[in-house]
TrEMBL record:
Organism per entry: Thermocladium modestius
Residue ranges crossing the lipid bilayer per the database entry: 7-30
Keyword set, alphabetical order: Copper, Membrane, Metal-binding, Transmembrane, Transmembrane helix
Entry-linked InterPro entries: BlueCu_1_BS, Cu_oxidase_CS, Cupredoxin
Superkingdom assignment: Archaea
GO MF annotation terms: metal ion binding
Protein name: Blue (type 1) copper domain-containing protein
Phylogenetic lineage: Archaea, Thermoproteota, Thermoprotei, Thermoproteales, Thermoproteaceae
């Protein structure tokens, strides 16, 4: 009887120790992936010090360590992202993508607008300092912008026009050399407060479903020639006015945002 009791106690102790080891090593693993490696197809990097899978579990998304696309339980309802993935681009490739509009895009530089008639839209978005964007595009930032900006196909914080039901494939790249940035879509309009994340997420259809994409990407590593990126897709299911925003404290307040117009189809 005493032997059986000792075995049960030993087994219970082994389980407790294994659980503690799993938690400690798991936290270290995520911390290492968050800070210890450059961002590429195998390693995930973000300013929080743990992989996107951790945020995935927190918000009911995806799986830990998944790179290249994790399905979400929300599907495409209300335009929530249908997948997300993290990766990197070379600096030169990122600059080329940010300046090269696809054939399906009609650019109107006079009013800083890009119109897509296709229902399948790829949107390459680069974050950078306003002065760098002006030098790259040859155009000044919008009058409301006082800091960092988005560059989309050679325009700074342009208005994006898409048809109702369009699927937007976002490729977001951080080309800023000293700032964290993100790119989310919301129904919450400007002006934005200094801490814009609660405002953007509260009371909107798209805010809560995009929390996973609110992770801020680290600055580009110009010394090694790569820039952090992530991608996701969303369906612009309903006509109306939406906004794309960087939620890093102070950025949206200083004008790091732009408008998305979803036009009704069929005369509705």
């Amino acid at each position: 009887m005493k032997t059986k009791t000792m075995l049960v106690v030993a087994l219970a102790g082994a389980i407790v120790l294994a659980t503690i080891a799993y938690l400690v090593l798991g936290w270290y693993w995520y911390g290492s992936y968050g800070h210890g490696y450059p961002l590429n197809s195998n390693y995930v990097n973000n300013p929080y010090g743990y992989g996107p899978g951790m945020m995935g579990y927190m918000w009911g998304y995806g799986y830990p360590g998944v790179v290249g696309g994790a399905p979400t339980p929300y599907g495409n309802q209300y335009g929530y992202p249908s997948y997300y993935s993290f990766g990197e681009y070379s600096i030169n490739e990122a600059l080329t993508l940010a300046m090269s509009a696809p054939r399906s895009a009609l650019e109107f530089r006079s009013n800083d607008t890009i119109v897509f008639r296709s229902s399948n839209v790829t949107l390459v978005v680069a974050a950078m300092m306003g002065g760098d964007a002006e030098n790259m595009t040859g155009s000044p930032p919008p009058s409301y912008s006082r800091g960092d900006v988005f560059v989309i196909y050679g325009l700074i914080n342009p208005t994006i026009v898409v048809p109702e039901g369009a699927v937007i494939h976002v490729i977001f790249i951080n080309l800023d050399d000293d700032m964290y940035h993100n790119f989310i879509v919301t129904t919450a309009p400007p002006p934005y407060p200094y801490y814009s994340m609660p405002y953007v997420a509260r009371g909107t259809e798209m805010g809560p479903g995009m929390m996973v994409n609110m992770e801020w990407l680290p600055p580009a590593n110009y010394g090694e020639g790569y820039a952090a990126s992530y991608s996701y897709s969303l369906v612009m299911e309903y006509p109306g006015i939406y906004w794309y925003v960087c939620t890093y404290p102070g950025h949206a307040e200083e004008g790091m945002y732009g408008e998305i117009i979803v036009e009704p189809v069929g005369g509705r």
